[in-house]
């Protein structure tokens, strides 16, 4: 997803600068932690949150260096929550990359997440205006809240689409919304533009989570990946399963008996993948509408392009 | 320890007010989390950090309500770190009380710690001056760093007294130092008084950790408590053992063979408890010296009383 962004030199340079700031900000007298976090940063990531923050900032006039620090802060918060989430999920792989907890141990993962979260605050606190700091901390709470909702809802066969969306809104969309918003705010966009970009991020975030959950079932792997099997065992049921179960409750039997190949076929036959993809596309449409009113600058084109890429990726499931 | 503080009505009223603020500040739309944290608050604690913050504030003139919020914030940070530490220690009991992780599960404990840490920031951010917020976050890092040092040093039979002190300084003394400091700072004490109180808190914190580690071996229980056995199994060697091992390396054999009763006797015979207690007393002396220069107000008498209580508790081991 978002493949074509990788070939944009300007964007790549900006992201490299953000990564530099991240690496600077995980420097610590505790070399061990510094090394682990530096390694995590080097091991990459899509850097969507900083990217969108910087693109959002293009709508305003005040391009200060603090934009890059805020962008780095967004990615660091994201990394911190990933580290803590992986402790809960007992994940050993995150889309092919070894997770912090399996690399360094669960114990270290707790501290590393705490350390990184604290460094993000420390960094943002100096660079962002006071009201925004409060908002950042409110969003942090949404992130935890979303994870807790998800954890509470394990094994819930009656989980509804709106419950799923509520989880996605909190655990994923909130940070995208904040990233879009902060870029606009720091670069001093007018309030209406800040809000429209915030909503763009929110809608993007929901469809991003839907796509993410779809990709876990990706047909590129001959059988379901180990992590998704573990997720299912742990009771994390995502949108394709929720849609499919409405149509065909037999999927619960397949889950119970760990018949994962059949499960995948069953979800497909019951339209689970297609319906999830369609809902994802609807959220992308909402994001598109928010952007429609904004000035036609280059950054807007790039964001629209990213939305189109997402749409293409979703359509592979429909 | 600090038994006589419990009978001070003024102090009790103040601490009840702090607890009220804590309870107000864990209110959440996520009722589950709110209930768990409220229960944790109700289940008590010595509240030393808020207490010392408020006592410190008596040296200044500016007694605002924000003192109580800062006091509540200190205790909430403390609780958050306890929750996360218990995940690492796999502790099921914390001095007789069931820990968050065994009560609610490891997964919840990660979120609850994150949530509480975030709420502490949120609360302190509005109430404390900007430079102090940075200092709070620096101290947070000391707390993680201390825990990491401790974790790194597991099974290290060559652990020195100064390594132990370094861990205690970071994981414990730093937050006491901050509590003393913030009280003085918010109530607008002069810089020299702020610094003297900060050092008082630091020295108190070190001796507090030493006493805490001694109490784990407390003779009130006929055999070593399960948690200390687990700690030893997990490789957490504390000051009495470090001193004893210098004198008699046989203790490593006793540890390896899980002969805990003999271990305790061996530590005693090798002077491990006594030497640890003496070092604790030395730090109390330093705290006393810092206070000597300060005005003789009622709060100072209470702090001195607390130091005397600590000294008595330590002397039971010497």
From TrEMBL, chains A, B:
Keywords: Magnesium, Metal-binding, Transferase. GO terms for molecular function: metal ion binding; prenyltransferase activity. SUPFAM superfamilies: Terpenoid synthases. It comes from the Bacteria. One of its GO terms (biological process) is isoprenoid biosynthetic process. InterPro entries: Isoprenoid_synthase_dom_sf, Polyprenyl_synt, Polyprenyl_synt_CS. Its cofactor is Mg(2+). Pfam families: polyprenyl_synt. Belongs to the FPP/GGPP synthase family. This is Polyprenyl synthetase family protein. It comes from Sinanaerobacter chloroacetimidivorans.
